[in-house]
Design brief:
single chain, about 100 residues
Length: about 100
């Protein structure tokens, strides 16, 4: 009974992860295309190395912040704080004139 229930939970969580994962892949693909398309060919390698550093290399620092906040306060509060930071960054990106011009 317990093993059957755990398999049902795993199947449900795997199915629930399909949409966020596909949105994540689409976002990275679109951003990668925009960065490469708006960069001069002579500078493309350097710009892509910076893009890779910021997109993937700085992720552990966000995890470190989230883990420290979760252990100091609570995990849901840490996730909420991360969501507020993301919303603030999105608002700055939307309100900055010329930032989205490619």
């Amino acid at each position: 009974m317990a093993i059957e229930l755990s398999f049902q939970i795993i199947d449900t969580s795997n199915c629930a992860q399909i949409l966020p994962d596909s949105i994540f892949v689409r976002t990275l693909t679109t951003a990668n295309t925009l960065v490469q398309g708006s960069t001069l060919e002579a500078l493309r390698g350097r710009v892509m190395s910076l893009w890779t550093l910021t997109a993937f290399g700085l992720t552990p620092f966000g995890s470190l912040q989230a883990g420290a906040l979760a252990s100091a306060l609570d995990a849901p509060l840490a996730l909420g704080f991360g969501a507020l930071v993301c919303l603030a960054a999105a608002a700055v990106a939307l309100l900055t004139p010329g930032l989205g011009d490619v």
